[in-house]
Write a structure and sequence with these properties.
The chain is an alpha+beta fold. Helices cover 52% and strands 15% of the residues. Strands 1, 2, 3, 4, 5, 6 and 7 form a seven-stranded mixed beta sheet that branches. Strands 8-9 form a two-stranded antiparallel ribbon. It starts with 7 loop residues before the first helix and ends in a 6-residue tail after the last helix. It binds acetoacetyl-coenzyme A. The site of acetoacetyl-coenzyme A has 24 residues, from strand 3, helix 6 and helix 10.
């Protein structure tokens, strides 16, 4: 049965991640957000802590922690800055976990130590300008030319796309075969034909890098088999969605912490606003959302750690935690009043940063279809 008691090691790692977040991430987050600055120096510090690729086996440069522990790290970083949490999620869950599971020994040795150490960043090239939720319907093409895979197409909304040394690119090899024709390629980004463009004007995650990728006959190394691309993407998302959910528990907790501190200090009608029942109700609502989201994330992590199927439970955790983060951030602004509407406090950024989490790595609507399909046995998309 699931045990809510953390081990000594898990407690220690959580404390370490918490101290690191408060010491290194929190002091920089407002300026990075204001200046839309992707803080590569901070990414390097996160890597030095062993937080990138933490679930990767030690022989490839990782820390070999379990998913529960990884979730604790991600929660703490998510409390500090969702832009940096996105770096951890993309590199660790979408890229490293895919290479661990599907890569050849050579591919693992070539890329994992560099990704875990932060020497290289990786991005996940699934979404395209015309293909989001319908991930099987990719237009990017891969063709074998004189024994080499050549990839042509475009990718959209790619986190870390402008800074990555490696792109995991999903492409179609045989359009008639639909998702069974998809393949996954390891694409080094330092080659002619690989170009990127920064996406500006985002509501949130302003300290994160987001790119549009253009691929013009670039060389890719096949990972897994032709036809396994869709499965690779889905298993990557099983890990990625868990990571997003854990990060959102961090946002929820940050909202509770900020609101409790503010409500105890802010005086109205000659008493702290924490003494008003309607303020207490808002705080209680946030606490319940946070606890429920955390419990769902822990359950998903426990299922992963014990090798049980967890796609549905991961979607439940992702759906609940991301929507909870939006709700909590909105409520936290209400507790802060006018002060919550400007960036003197973290809560307005929490709302802007939370908003994308119900979109990326599968919208809330896609999570609902996955959950409902599991219980009804009916595929709404068939
Ligand atoms: N694990 C392993 N295999 C899986 C799987 C999983 N979680 N989910 C599906 N599969 C397999 C199925 O078993 C099936 O295999 P067979 O062909 O052998 O039978 C195959 O994949 C096709 O599955 P479905 O019939 O379920 O496929 P579908 O076309 O109905 O799509 C979907 C299902 C859930 C809607 C899927 O398309 C999906 O998740 N869409 C959302 C995409 C998404 O999350 N995009 C986010 C991009 S990443 C991102 O945001 C990047 C960033 O930078 C942050």
């Amino acid at each position: 049965m699931i045990d809510f008691e953390l081990t000594d090691e898990q407690r220690l790692i959580r404390e370490t991640a918490r101290d690191f977040t408060d010491r290194e991430i929190v002091p920089r987050v407002r300026e990075n957000d204001r200046n839309e600055r992707f803080d590569t120096e901070l990414v390097r510090k996160i890597a030095d802590m062993g937080f990138l690729g933490a679930i990767v086996p030690e022989e490839y440069g990782g820390r070999a922690v379990d998913y529960r522990t990884y979730g604790l790290i991600v929660e703490e970083i998510g409390r500090g800055d969702s832009a940096m949490r996105t770096v951890v999620s993309v590199v660790t869950s979408l890229v490293c976990s895919s290479i661990v599971r599907w890569g050849s020994e050579e591919q693992k040795k070539e890329w994992l130590p560099r990704l875990c150490s932060g020497e290289a960043l990786g991005c996940f090239g699934l979404t395209e300008p015309d293909t989001g939720s319908d991930a099987a319907n990719l237009k990017t093409r891969a063709e074998k030319v004189n024994g080499t895979w050549r990839i042509t197409g475009g990718k959209m909304w790619i986190s870390l796309g402008n800074y990555s040394e490696l792109a995991l690119v999903f492409a179609q090899t045989e359009p008639d075969r639909k998702h069974k024709g998809l393949a996954c390629f390891l694409v080094p980004t330092d080659q002619a034909g690989f170009t990127t463009q920064e996406i500006h004007g985002k509501l949130g995650l302003r300290g994160s890098d987001t790119a549009e990728l253009s691929l013009d006959g670039v060389e890719g190394e096949l990972m897994g088999e032709v036809g396994e691309g869709f499965k690779i993407a889905m298993t990557a998302l099983d890990s990625g969605r868990y990571s997003v959910a854990a990060g959102c528990v961090g946002i929820c907790q940050g909202c509770v912490d900020a609101s409790v501190a503010y409500a105890k200090e802010r005086q109205q009608f000659d008493r702290p606003i924490a003494s008003f029942q309607l303020v207490q109700e808002m705080i209680a609502d946030m606490v319940v959302e946070t606890d429920a989201a955390r419990a769902l994330v822990w359950r998903a992590g426990w299922l992963k750690d014990t090798g049980r199927p967890n796609t549905t439970e991961t979607s439940i955790a992702k759906l609940y935690a991301t929507e909870a983060a939006v709700k909590c951030a909105n409520t936290a602004i209400q507790v802060h009043g006018g002060s919550g509407y400007v960036d003197d406090y973290p809560v307005e950024r929490y709302l802007r940063d939370a908003r994308v989490t119900t979109l990326y790595e599968g919208t809330s609507q896609i999570q609902k279809l996955i959950i409902a399909r599991a219980v009804t046995g009916v595929n709404a998309l068939a």
